[in-house]
Specification:
Blueprint (H helix, E strand, L loop, with lengths): L5 E11 L2 E11 L6 E11 L9 E6 L9 E8 L5 H11 L10
Parallel strand pairs: 3-5
Antiparallel strand pairs: 1-2, 1-4, 2-3, 4-5
Length: 104
Amino acid sequence: MNNRRRIVGKVTSNKMTKTVVVEIVRKFRHPLYKKVVYASKRVKAHDEIGCQVGDEVQIVESRPLSRDKRWVVESIVKHETRTADAGVEAVASADIPAETKPEE
C-alpha cells in the first residue's frame, strides 16, 4: 500500500468526459462551542470506471491531471439505487380500466 490519502465521497455530477465531481462531507465538533458542524468540499476526480450520480466512491490523491483534477476514483463503495422502477409501476397502475379499480 502507498501513503496517498483516500477519501470517501458522493458523486454529484458526471457530465464531463472521464471526470466526476465528488462531494466530501466531514463531521466534527466545534472546539469552543461543542456543536456538531458539517463541512463539505467538492473536488473533481478522474473516472475510468464510469460512476453515476449518487454513487458513493473512494477517491485517492494523485499527481495533477489537469488544472482542477488532483484525485482519481479508486473504487465504487455503494451504487445508488435507481427510482425508475417505481415510476414504471405507477404508470402500469394508471392503465387499469375504471370498472376494475376499487370503489372509494
